[in-house]
Amino acid sequence: MPSSILSIAIPTFNRSGILLENLEAMLPELQKFGIPVYISDDGQGPEVGVALAPFREKHPHVNLRQNCPSLGHDRNCLSTLAWPESEYVWYLGDSMRIEKGGIAAVLGCLSERPSFVFVNCNATSIAEASMKIEDLRGFLRKAAWYLTLSGATVYSRQAIRWCIANLGGREFHNFQQLGAILAYASLNDVGAFWLNDRLLTVNKKKKSYWTRDVVQVFGHDWIDLVEAFPVIFDDDSIETALKSHSKNQKLFSTLNLVNFRAAGAITLPIMKANRTYLKRTSSRGLTPFWLVLLFPRKLAILLKKAVKAAFGLISTKSRWN
Fold it and tell me: Can you give the CATH number for the domain in which 42 is found?
């Protein structure tokens, strides 16, 4: 009998191999607790269905839906969240896996009926221990950067229903799941939980979809999101919040900047057009961006290959989906 308390909802796009690998790792606890899984495939091929067929024989509570036409990243997010009918929905990126004990830990919090349960992956600076969050807005000022991670949040059915009814199709480009949290918290300052144990893992094979659009995503889109919620990010906290993702995830480290340069995401025209936005979001200022432009793109590509050969597969250290 599938659980009516907790479901896992996964939007996916062209990552059938990683998705299956993560599900296999989670299978023992999915079976133990009867956790249904809802997978919303925004790709246009049969790969996900084919890959999942053997897994569904082992865990029949897997629901698969292929969106035709594709919904796109942001619409697929809300659509996936709204799909299960359980009391709580763990929204999980297709590159994420829940570690042993993660499902049990979340289930242990739900008797107190929180609006959200936030689960740690590697954000050890947020809190020293698991705790009940009494001041949700205050917590979000500190932790919003971390909650960009698709997998860090378990949503209550109440919060999901409120968002579907009140957002009116409003999109928070590239940060739809966090936009829903911030929107709900802006008008409903209620309790939540923080689980400090590291119960999530990012699949190391993941390649971030936004690498070539990093300036748009963590320049324009991130600013638009934070500025949309002045109840949470007031004049005293907004500039710190804007730099928080870059600071905590080392988004614009030297290694990552070389990677972005190699991908064509940092060019002179892009810098000239977006320097005002990057100045607000980069915790390192703009000097490292100008310096990396001294590397011709072909040289950056060669440097990236050299680092890959020396240290293994290189990926951006900001692993959020």
Answer: 3.90.550.60
